[in-house]
Design goal:
Helices cover 34% and strands 27% of the residues. By secondary structure, it is of the alpha/beta class.
Length: 208
């Protein structure tokens, strides 16, 4: 095969890929890690096959709607940026959980680090134990894996914890519900893809 023929073939392949790609839209979603693990990934697993002409980019890092870094954002803090449309999806409840194998031999607690400080996600455990956390960790999944092997308690969303038979409520501690907010920029209000995705996410997450 000559260089010219090889080059012509490569260009043909690029053109073919471009023809398929040009019909694809890209939707960027940013959400705090615990929101992703607490239910958003499950929702996306159902949504992605329905949107054959959409490529999704999902990030656990909160990005700016105002600067066009993301299309849809999900957060615990109420968005206060300029021209942003806000939708409160629901409140999630937290409880203290422990692996049932360590129910009577708890030695400490885990701090979930993903939350903004003002939420005091792990405050009930700090008050209950009166000590520093045995370990601080990012994410619900990693915390749960630690709880499989360690006699430690963690504050987890009830909807998340109830998926696992080995997790039981440690003690009934006084907690407050935490809101989940969805937001997008005002300039995208009439964007068909954004509107459809927002509706799907809100409905699915409220039912989860």
């Amino acid at each position: 095969v000559s260089v010219a023929e090889a080059l012509e073939y490569d260009l043909t392949q690029v053109e073919t890929i471009s023809e398929h790609s040009q019909h694809k839209e890209k939707l960027r979603i940013s959400a705090e890690l615990t929101i992703l693990q607490g239910g958003l990934i499950k929702v996306l697993n159902e949504l992605i096959p329905e949107e054959e002409n959409v490529n999704f980019e999902v990030s656990m890092y909160m990005k700016s709607l105002a600067f066009g870094e993301t299309d849809i954002a999900l957060s615990y803090a109420k968005p206060n940026d300029g021209r942003v449309v806000r939708v409160k999806i629901k409140d999630i409840s937290l409880k203290a959980y422990v692996n049932r194998n360590f129910q009577s031999s708890v030695e400490g607690w885990i701090e979930i680090l993903d939350q903004i400080e003002s939420l005091d996600w792990s405050a009930p455990l700090a008050a209950r134990f009166g000590t520093e956390p045995k370990i601080g960790i990012h994410g619900l999944n990693v915390a749960r894996q630690l709880m499989d092997k360690q006699p430690l308690v963690a504050m987890l969303p009830t909807a998340y914890a109830e998926q696992f038979d080995d997790l039981i409520e440690f003690e009934e501690l006084e907690t407050s519900d935490i809101p989940i907010w969805l937001s997008y920029h005002e300039s995208r209000r009439h964007d068909p893809l954004v509107r459809k995705t927002v509706t799907s996410l809100v409905d699915a997450l409220r039912d989860s």
